[in-house]
Design goal:
By secondary structure, this protein is α/β, with parallel strands linked by helices. It has one domain: Isochorismatase-like (Rossmann fold), CATH 3.40.50.850. The chain contains 5 helices and 8 strands. The longest helix has 14 residues. It starts with a strand and ends with a strand. The structure holds pyrazine-2-carboxylic acid and zinc ion. It comes from Pantoea phytobeneficialis. This is Nicotinamidase. One of its GO terms (molecular function) is nicotinamidase activity. Keywords: Hydrolase, Metal-binding, Pyridine nucleotide biosynthesis.
Amino acid sequence: MKRALIIIDIQNDFCPGGPMAVREGDLTVAVANRYAREFRARGECVVALQDWHPNNHGSFASVSGEPVYTLGELNGLAQIWWPDHGIQGSVGADFHPDLDRTLIDAVFHKGEDVDVDSYSAFFDNGHRRKTELDRWLRERDISHLVVLGLATDYCVKYSVLDALELGYQVEVVEEGCRGVNLNPEDSAIAIEQMRNQGAIII
Ligand code: VGL
Ligand code: ZN
């Protein structure tokens, strides 16, 4: 059984001070670094994801003209209109400065297609297109994922649910995750959904 650590979207825009700040988002950094050091010390892989949108991404409230954090529809899929975030090449899209990049073996991007949002590390929200992550993991016979990062109720949740569906064993490091919580219960509900689908919450 080979394992990989999957670090989800620990980017400046999702940390305090950013346009889409997740409360205590920056507290995930030390946890990520600690796990990453342990994985590397055992010769296991560390992978990081980045939300990586073009500046006119269809999920942006600035593009739809709707108020931020309200619900609408983008190409037939339910869509929350987000503040501009994760713009390719911007400082905001960069990893948090304290995240130790020297421990990361591979970086994967998601959300590059303007027409569809992409919370999961594996698929867009319409499950039409797949990132390279699944193939990269399979090529290395990695069957067990340890997941942490931002945000519990969006990118962490959808990445974990897709990973379970793809047949991975998944552990979620709860202390290494924080949520957007548009409704205060959202992260707790997300943790329960992940657990119900077979994830082990540690
Ligand atoms: C995320 C909403 C939109 C996340 C990214 O990283 O959880 N959520 N884009
Ligand atoms: Zn996004």
